[in-house]
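Discussion board: Methods & Data

I've been asked by a reviewer to show the raw model output for two of the constructs in my manuscript, not just the figures. I'm not sure how much to include, so I'm pasting the format here to get opinions. Each protein appears as its amino acid sequence followed by a line of discrete structure tokens. Is this the kind of thing reviewers expect to see in a supplement, or should I convert it first? Here is construct A:
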Amino acid sequence: LEYQEQAIAAIDKALCKYSPSLKQLQNLEIFCVASLKIGDKEVGATNSKTRDVILIRVRDSEEQLDPARLEQILHHEFSSLLVRQHLDVFPAQLWQATLPHGFEYTQQEPSDYVEARPGGDVEWQDLENGFLGKYAQVDPMQDINTVAEQVMMESSRYALAIRTFPRLRQKAFVYALFLTHVDPALGERAMAFVQTATDEHTDNSDG
């Protein structure tokens, strides 16, 4: 079916950005399903906390498949696997330093929130505080993942957000730094993306 071929192509495009030597990539299993629920809530994707497994809900053939969105979801879920397996090299103190003073994650279920994107239904105050919507404020992993997916997609909207909001810029830098430890080539690419946005911000400020 055409929509299944589009889904596979989007997933392959996402995975090609990572080094084939990554253990998580070698063991990775991805299942595209028609329906996916956590409790009684329909969700777009999830991952296993004990295995390198990702589940993604793929829309049926009567709905339009968004390959870019599917790729973004995969980066989001794969980030969870990378961070869990390489927690020893994740710059946790640097990440903590990006958070507003006194901030505490809500620790609510991620499925209680609709993920918001830069330029979408995101409150300005959230962006100033370094969060891509309420979803990113649930727990550290969701916060990291929302940054990871944007960095991996090299989103132009996110680049604009980096230029505009210092805390988002700091978080993007911390995630790119993390990638340099687990996948040096990818980390270098991510760092270049963040640096380009930062340089443009500096140039515009000077002008």
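Construct B, same format:
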Amino acid sequence: AAVDLSGLDVRASDRDVRAHLGYGRIEARGVKVGGDLWLTRALDAEAWQSHHRGRAPVPAPQCHVTVAGSVDLRGAEIVHFCLSAQPFQRGIAAGESVEKAERERGVLLSGARITELELLPLDGGRTVFPDPINLADVTVGQWNIGEGVQDQHRRYCQLLGADHTPRRSTYLAVERSLRNRGLEAEADKVYRAMVRRGSGERQSFLPSN
């Protein structure tokens, strides 16, 4: 079964979101989706071109969920999950609590098991991927983050940078995924990025929960 939440508008005032009463957020901890879970979905490209008689002025538009607060999918089991950074251009301010920011406006995927994680990059936005995002102990069978042949490690490092709590386990999971696909050089670059971030962050890498 598929669940399509693209186009859903979950509203709440900033005050209600900060009160942590559950307003303005999608709470689906532990949910099981045996098919697609769409938070972002593009119109069918072929139908879009057909509608414009093959002369569409722009690519098929995307429809996004709009959420005032956070999306909590901790511990979820999903076959295919798709979202974009478009609704999650928030980031974390200097000195702000990471845990508080994630709880109020993040995408929480910690402990989730996802067969295919599709994250649509937004190169022209404030952030390329949803920010903040929590990837602690997430299990992903196939990462689909819009990477090109020449920029695999750059894309993954952009994604890992949007998780503001550095964890070796997350970097190593991505490194392992790249190696399993025969991308040894790209995997090495992700590993070196992990080492650089670990030495440069004031906060040491945290162990898995």
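Answer (T.O., handling editor elsewhere):
This is acceptable in a supplement if you add a one-line summary per construct. For B, something like: The mean pLDDT is 87.
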